[in-house]
Amino acid sequence: MKEKFPCIECGLCCYKVNEVPEVKYLYDVEKDCCRYLNCNTYKCTIYNNRPAFCNVEHMYDEYFSHTMSESEFILINLKVCYQLNKEKGFIANCQKLAIFIDELEIY
Ligand code: SF4
Ligand code: SF4
Predict the structure, then answer these.
(1) How close is the Cα of 105 to the center of ligand 2, in Å?
(2) 26: how many CB neighbours lie within 10 A of its CB?
């Protein structure tokens, strides 16, 4: 993937690992999120060595580059990010993500 995924570092996907079979092993029941998430900063503490499944660019290159464009893949993922923030009522985050989504939907 040539573009970098415009992650706003909300950390909400890292709170969903228990719902995703591929990364369920990362779940920490006491933190109720991924064991590697810093719950104060919402940053991944193993970012440079995070599992391939957590790496949007890697997932595109490895599994989706033959079925859709980069922009389509980024858009699909951004819509999930948007939905996670909407469910939490994080309006400011939704607004940030909506800008990226709008840009991709226009072009
Ligand atoms: S939910 Fe989306 S924007 Fe938030 S940390 Fe995960 S990938 Fe980044
Ligand atoms: S390894 Fe890092 S990016 Fe992946 S779910 Fe855990 S905290 Fe998030």
Answers:
(1) 28
(2) 20
